[in-house]
Write a structure and sequence with these properties.
With 353 residues, this protein is an alpha/beta fold. The chain folds into two domains: 2-131 and 309-352, ATPase, nucleotide binding domain (Nucleotidyltransferase, domain 5, 2-Layer Sandwich); 139-305, 2-Layer Sandwich (Nucleotidyltransferase, domain 5), CATH 3.30.420.40. The chain has helices at residues 31-35, 42-66, 88-105, 114-120, 171-181, 188-196, 222-235, 237-242, 244-270, 285-297, 316-327, and strands at residues 2-6, 11-18, 21-29, 78-84, 109-113, 139-144, 149-156, 159-165, 274-278, 301-303. The strands form two sheets. It has a five-stranded mixed sheet, with helices on both faces. Strand 4, helix 3 and strand 5 form a beta-alpha-beta unit. The radius of gyration is 20 Å and the shape is globular. The two termini are 27 Å apart. The structure holds 5'-O-[(R)-(carboxyoxy)(hydroxy)phosphoryl]adenosine and zinc ion. 5'-O-[(R)-(carboxyoxy)(hydroxy)phosphoryl]adenosine is lined by residues 9, 145-147, 172-173, 175-176, 187-190, 193, 279-281, 283-284, 312-313. Residues 114, 118, 145, 279, 313 line the site of zinc ion.
Length: 353
């Protein structure tokens, strides 16, 4: 059994997993705290993590008990924790807690990359071991979250090659900023999805698809954001209110249109037709429709996290990734000097050297 902790951004989360099976999972979301600021405020995030971490650990044990397992931290084989990428002062809270637990119960610590957690979220199972998805290598991963937009070749367990990434804003961040401009609050992705849902002419304003003329697999969303800003400014407040749904939908189409064009290019370039889409934005049903459409054209297959809670930040995915690291002996017995890595890249393990 692995007890996992995640505090990289604005969710304080803990979970217990046994292999890929999630036995207990608790997420305290700080969304309401950050809402009025239109984005995550690091100092507030840190304070909320500090205030909630013990409660989240306790609740995770209570849930474990309700599932029929002994709620005993001494029964854990390992403690796992997100060490990056993320907000330094937020990561520190989880790492400190994990060290405290590892020290108290004399168990090794497993440092986990947050993005690696997102990738493994697709393979998480319920307590009965479902769904029984097999790992198939290589797979092509599209990570779409608030902090990251990356195309990755998942070559083997814990073996990744990054083939495309955003040069500025992430897809989720672009949606959050557009929502803010529309006066819709934070996080923006869910509100935009809801507003766009029943719009008939989904691409009414036909905003430019950023970077599609750029030959590679990188993304950039800041140009779209800026042109959206000036478009709204020029049209005025009345227009915004009257066309809210079409604006939300057209912006969403521009972001997702770019994602699927680049995904298609990546499939062509790598020849890999097995696709995995993860991260907070991957919960979006419109994105799923567009991704399925592309993958179907190549007669490929696509996997999303099996349950919606696994798309956004959670510790269950950290625990699942940690299980595969434990199997390879990638844990630390001496962890007191373990640091946080705010800009940690996939596949890098700087704590090993
Ligand atoms: O993975 P995540 O929870 O945190 C990071 O690691 O960044 O992703 C959060 C992002 C936010 O930008 C949020 O607006 C977006 O995921 N998101 C959505 C939806 N729900 C959350 N984007 C589009 N549609 C949604 N329904
Ligand atoms: Zn995340």
């Amino acid at each position: 059994m692995i007890f996992a902790i995640e505090t990289s951004c604005d969710e304080t989360a803990a979970a217990v997993v046994q292999a890929r099976r999630v036995l207990s999972n608790v997420i305290y979301s700080q969304a309401l705290i950050h809402k009025k600021w239109g984005g995550v405020v690091p100092s507030l995030a840190r304070r909320a993590h500090e205030e909630k971490i013990d409660w989240v650990v306790e609740e995770t044990l209570k849930k474990l008990k309700r599932g029929g397992k002994e709620p005993d931290l001494a029964k854990m084989d390992y403690f796992a924790v997100t060490v990056g990428p993320g907000l330094a002062i937020a990561l520190e809270v989880g790492i400190r807690k994990a060290k405290e637990l590892g020290r108290t119960y004399k168990k090794p610590l497993i440092p986990v990359n947050h993005l690696e957690g997102h990738i493994y979220s697709v393979f998480a199972q319920n307590r009965n071991g479902n769904p029984k998805r097999d790992f198939n290598f290589p797979s092509l991963v599209l990570i779409v979250s608030g902090g990251h937009t990356e195309l990755v070749i998942f070559k083997d367990h814990l073996d990744y090659e990054i083939i495309g990434k955003t040069l500025d804003d992430a897809a989720g961040e672009a949606l959050d900023k557009a929502a803010k401009m529309l006066g819709l609050g934070y996080p923006g992705g869910p509100v935009i999805e809801r507003l766009a849902k029943d719009v008939e002419n989904k691409d009414f304003f036909n905003f430019p698809r950023p970077m599609i003329r750029h030959p590679g697999l990188d993304f950039s969303f800041s140009g779209l954001k800026t042109s959206f800003y000036y478009f709204l400014k020029q049209k005025g407040e009345d227009f915004k209110v009257k066309n809210l749904r079409e604006l939300a939908s057209s912006f969403q189409e521009a972001v997702f249109g770019t994602l699927v064009i680049k995904l298609e290019r990546a499939i062509k370039k790598t020849g890999i037709k097995r696709v995995i889409v993860v991260g907070g934005v991957s919960v979006n049903r419109r994105l799923r429709v567009l991704v399925r459409r592309v993958v179907r054209r190549f007669k490929g297959e696509v996997y999303f996290p099996p349950l919606d809670y696994l798309t956004s930040d959670n510790a269950a995915m950290i625990g699942v990734a940690a299980y595969f690291k434990a199997k390879k002996g990638l844990f630390l017995k001496n962890f007191e000097s373990l640091d946080r890595y705010p800009r940690l890249e996939l596949g890098k393990e700087p704590w090993k050297s």
